[in-house]
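Input for the complex:
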Amino acid sequence: MGCDEPLTLLRERGQREVFCGLTSIVWLHRRMPDAFFLVVGSRTCAHLIQSAAGVMIFAEPRFGTAILGERDLAGLADANEELDRVVMQLLERRPEIRTLFLVGSCPSEVIKLDLDNAAQRLSQRYLPRVRVVSYSGSGIETTFTQGEDNALTALVPLLPSSSDESLLVVGTMADQVEDQLYRLFNQLGLPRVQILPPRRSTDLPSVGANTRILLSQPYLSATTRALQARGAQLIGAPYPLGVKGTTAWIQAAAAAFGLDASLVQPHLEAAQQRGGKAVARYREQLQGKSVFLLPDSQLEIPLARFLHQECGMVLQEVGTPYLDRLLMKAELDQLPANTTLSEGQHVDRQLERVRSARPDLVVCGLGLANPLEAEGMATKWSIELVFSPIQGYEQAGDLAELFARPLARRQRLHL
Amino acid sequence: MDLTLWTYEGPPHVGAMRIATSMEGVHYVLHAPQGDTYADLLFTMIERRGKRPPVTYTTFQARDLGGDTAEMVKTSVRDAVERFQPQALLVGESCTAELIQDQPGALANGMGLPIPIVNLELPAYSKKENWGAAETFYQLVRGLLKDQIPAPGTVRSPRSPGARPKVNLLGPSALGFRCRDDVTEVCKLLGEIGVQVSVVAPLGASPADLRRIPEADLNICLYPEVAKPVCDWLERQFAMPCVRTVPIGIGATGDFLQEVGAALGVDVSMALRPEVVGSSDLWSPQLHGGSTERACSRLPWYSRSVDSTYLTGKRVFIFADGTHALAAARIATAELGFELVGLGTYSRESAKLVRAAAKTYGLEPLITDDYLTVEKAISDAAPELVLGTQMERHIAKRLSIPCAVISTPIHVQDVPARYGPQMGWEGANVIFDTWVHPLMMGLEEHLIGMFREDFEFVDGHQSHLHTGGPQSPESSPAAVVHMGTTGHKDQSWSQEGLAELGKVPFFVRGKVRRNTETFAATKGIALITAETLYEAKAHYNR
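Predicted:
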């Protein structure tokens, strides 16, 4: 169902209503329970992470902020000494930590605090017990999910080399989802399946010329390029959202290892049918309804494809913080030709478009959801799509349900 | 550089946002990178606001830094004024913009805009949210009133005879603790003594309202965290007297009325009435009908009633912002008969007052913004009740200690749908209920002792609080094969199936297990695998 005509692309410049890359820490620290994420930043950074995650339920979280004070700004030599002191304090307190990520922020970038250097210095001191790695999650360089992209990119140079044939699945998914998909890969008899990021921060996968990369998340632009630079080959595929997306994703991986689609299909049949049935139930509710996606997590394009292709929704506008055509090619090919795509954001103008389009459903961030509801529009807050297990066959129905729920709720309420 | 895992207060520009969001006709242009827009959700989610905060962020990026970020400020200011048409504009910067020194306030001032521009300089690397709110409110009021400042030595003309005395309520703000309802309650309280409320600010006020502040006879500093600098300045420049007692609790509400009365020359003795006692609280048209109804509090009688005997000497730990910590300490000791075992605040601005108060209770004050220090202090003090912020609520939950939230930082449940003030007579009622309900009821303590051996008994259960005890029976998927629980013969779980079941959230795990086993039985499946589990899930989803 490809499209020959180019999609309409709006390039927007103005106020962006998105999180910065620090927010990725919320799921990365859960993925790697033996890692700690230390943001070197300001009180704003600390406040952002705790507010975005709504986290106050932890005993002691595996992330924190080294808050820069006026003295750190006055002299960078002192800032480095201070950082060493904070890291020592932290590692004494948390002996179970094996990998420490120093996460750069807007202020640390602007004062040019060299965290790469600091990470090397600290690694020398703490290896083999703890490896110290650095990356930037700053809002002047990254949006929301790009934080994970930068974190994984920082791990790429540490991956051992290997010329063994392997499938490297890249991107954080819920453990449960990952287990489901790996069971399928095992049934197909694919060669070694590896994961980045690993569940234990020290179990790093190997990479080389016979490594094939399969992205489970659509926001890993820099990681992909870094892995390609180490010889790995990217498998072009859509993302495993929905039954069709998951099938295409698995088939692309299988094809990369020379497996014929007809041999793969029987292994997928049962799960496809289950997923298909689960989605069908919500398709009844979503069919023909219009949806407007504001830019947020980079998942917008694959989600739009799913909502259009499997739920029958009408796409009014699909916003994305940035457009990486290499990573989105297989997705864009499946969008209807008349789709309006917007890259970047001018939030006030975009809200004007939302108001004039009056979609049945707006997918947006938490800052905008209640104001739009108050204007009478149904919304789905997008952060839930990042924190919930939505990939794979068994979750396809759950994914559709997330979009059907706001509409179903409106039908129930008589207020 | 300080290691911070969680913070009680946000940065100072969030304080400025609280002032802007509280008001009508004010817009705030904030020179800040894109991530800083997270702050919008504090207002739209926690307070369920139906409007975006009136804030425009420049959202500069790394690639702009080499170029002209100053031009971005001007564009944002121009666009915001045109689009939102505010009566006054706040212009400031967040932590990152402070480093690049574009001086957005000065830039905006040079643009010749037709509205007042207030240049906010809020040092992000040394100050915090409440300071930022207070400074913003002060700069805004000062900016709007500077042309009205009387010459030094001018004596305020006395109120004309027969004129109703007028006061301003200063300090209530967005994301404050129960401000909306406190304002209503204090207005009622003042109405009873014939005092008119002139300006309430910043909550609900416009710049035009702020210009009317000097028309009142008296300022009431309702929330010192936000209003103290403004009240001090108005006292200095406009010779406006200020009432500083915060009317939280029975004793403080009485003191407040007397202080207002003394400052305005109003007789308040009728308002200092005794509380409702015993059966006189039955509904009657005299008591509850018509406009002659006089508010009163049930707290004193409830506290003296025999049911409350069990409250005597309950050990209570208080940690909050300065105002609410001090008020809670007085209520806990003098009005509920608790014993104070800890008193502290995260607010450095109130440290002096809290230290002095702690001394009178014979306690070592806890002045810190490190929640782990607070957690340790609570754990060491082993209180029976914790009064604190949302963080203390979580700490208390971990330590299995009853808790009530009395102060910011707040979460969505601290913005209740019902009327729930903290101030005045009704506030005292609310406080009685909120603090006493988390405690085990007097009689229930005995019942639990009696029934502990019964198999229905779940440890930690408190019937009036709907808290079940900890769940556990489903949580050990260690066995190789495991018999089903629904009594189907010849049915067992594979290890992999059980492991999969273990990943299902505990609160639905039991249901998933039963459904899967029933499904397996109807299909004649003997060994339940992960595949069966998902087959069943799909089946029941239909």
